[in-house]
Design brief:
The chain contains 17 helices and 14 strands. It is of the alpha/beta class.
Amino acid sequence: MIPRKSYESVLEKALKRSPVVSLLGPRQCGKTTLARMIEKKHEAVFFDLESPRDRLRLQNPQMALEILKGLVIIDEVQGMPELFEILRVLVDRSDNPATFLLLGSASPHILKNVSETLAGRTELIEMSGFDFMEIGEDNLHELWLRGGFPRSFLPRLLEDSIAWREGFVRTFLERDIPQLGINISAIAMRRFWTMLAHCHGQTLNASQLGRSLGVTDKTIRSYLDILTGTYMVCQVQPWHENIGKRQVKAPKIYFRDSGILHHLLAITDMESLMTNPRLGASWEGFAVEQIIRVLPLQDVYFWSTYSGAELDLFFFHDSKRYGIEIKFSETPKITKSMHIAIQDLDLEHLWVVYSGNHIVPVEKKITLVPLDKIETIQAV
């Protein structure tokens, strides 16, 4: 088992200052394992709402919860939405003796309940699978191939990782998607998800996807919003600059987990990954996810013009502008597009995150940085 010490530290601090802490993330990313560790340290009361026995204990939830003291952990809280109103009443008591840790598989419904019903009373922590800081730089390519879900990354045999990912995809399509209100068959949704995998790293063309699936642009966007809300997909929004050039205005689509992406693209091992035409896009999406998780960035964008200039990530820090370009190459070239981005966006610096091993300053405003050394980026 790989300890999740950064999440554990964040959780412990949040539990000291907030009456309710909500730990949200995709299914099977390690939330319950982490909560069980916290339970042992605090001798907490634990409810698993997927357990019939625990649901029976909460048949009258207010009566069951109002007598408890100390830490109370409720897992799969999205399975009992009426709890949020009750928790609001309980934590508003002047002598409230309990602190609540809520675990939930992220979805638009649970986010709405947390942000509206428990507004001002809860601290929200988002959890994902492993990142390279947790597993070490020696395992970076294994993390890229298998993804960060513990039960995909940890098995000794690659075939066990592949089997787990197939089960995860099937469960998500057949059970989770219908629960989120998407009225579409699992077969059609898998087709949509596979089509989306082939669009990974590209700007969204909702019309094209809609025609292929026989639905409207609006429906495609609603599906995407739900996949984004469940941490399956990331939509990086475009940045528009007043520079007199036509600029792309649709979001860029990435799968959050590279292992799930590879499964949908039938990429089974490093050999098939290295020969796949989606190799560059896969590396780009993997790098984007690691960068967003490791660097403390508030908002990130991408920038692209119809004349061909583009920048993978654009962000502000201390009112200054910075950019990141991502290349799967050990000797990436400094391109005309990079110089245009520096000039048109008035960048303070541009980092090229690449697949090599050394930090290399190549020009006054351009530095090559290996993916496993992105925490050294000086702006943040």
